[in-house]
Design goal:
Layout (H helix, E strand, L loop, with lengths): L12 E9 L7 H19 L3 E11 L2 E9 L6 H6 L12 H7 L10 E9 L4 E4 L2 E4 H16 L4 E8 L8 H10 L3 E5 L4 H11 L3
Parallel strand pairs: 1-2, 1-4, 4-7, 7-8
Antiparallel strand pairs: 2-3, 5-6
Helix pairs in contact: 3-4, 4-5
């Protein structure tokens, strides 16, 4: 069972924007365990004052990057998560930074009353071939990193979790690519252990 408990010494609001890789490679146990984490965070937010969460899913459809703005606790009830998230399934390829550029418009920069975090869950390298277009490799990694830096320039703390249901290999090509894109915020995790995400989030929040 995954729980999120936060000790707040000042009455500030925390807004957490979660972006989930919904490409087809996330299918199976990897997807199911990732969703356990996401739903657990949404449930915790529903129970904790001054904490908000926005959840988006990214994939591709009809040769275009595709984003589902799935849930925003500021305007929607947790019942939406319970009724709809179980029906979501991964599909398509991995557009990464192309989607971040779009959802960035909904991010709220930090201020005296708000701390903002961007939580990314993904399982690999960016890959999005289209008609006369190829988004992958070094070019895509650099573009994704550029988008991450733009998010961080708003004062938003980035946490990026490389999710795997295999033994974690810090030296694999996927892991190196992930660290190149997300820098110091990149973490390797085994999604079968749901406490890993909430534990590291707690540690970050408690630093405030």
């Amino acid at each position: 069972r995954s729980t999120l408990s936060l000790r707040r010494q000042r009455q500030m609001c925390i807004r957490d924007s979660i972006s989930v890789d919904a490409s087809s490679s996330m299918n199976g146990d990897k997807w199911n365990n990732t969703m356990v984490n996401v739903v657990a965070i949404c449930k915790a937010v529903d129970m904790i004052p001054n904490l908000q969460v926005q959840v988006t899913f990214r994939c591709t459809q009809n040769e275009k990057p595709y984003i589902v703005m799935a849930y925003d606790s500021k305007t929607e009830k947790f019942s939406k998560v319970k009724s709809m998230f179980g029906g979501l399934r991964p599909n398509g390829t991995t557009p990464e930074g192309l989607c971040f550029e779009a959802i960035m418009k909904s991010f709220i920069p930090i201020n005296n009353d708000l701390d903002s975090y961007f939580l990314n869950l993904s399982d690999g390298q960016p890959y999005f071939p289209g008609n006369g277009f190829y988004y992958a490799g070094d070019r895509a990694e650099k573009h994704t990193n550029k988008m991450v830096k733009m998010i961080e320039s708003m004062g938003i703390q980035t946490l990026a979790y490389f999710v795997t249901d295999w033994e974690i290999n810090e030296d694999s090509s996927d892991a190196r690519s992930f660290k190149k894109m997300y820098g110091k915020g990149a973490k390797m995790i085994d999604v079968t252990n749901a406490n890993q995400i909430t534990k590291t989030m707690n540690q970050l929040f408690l630093q405030k």
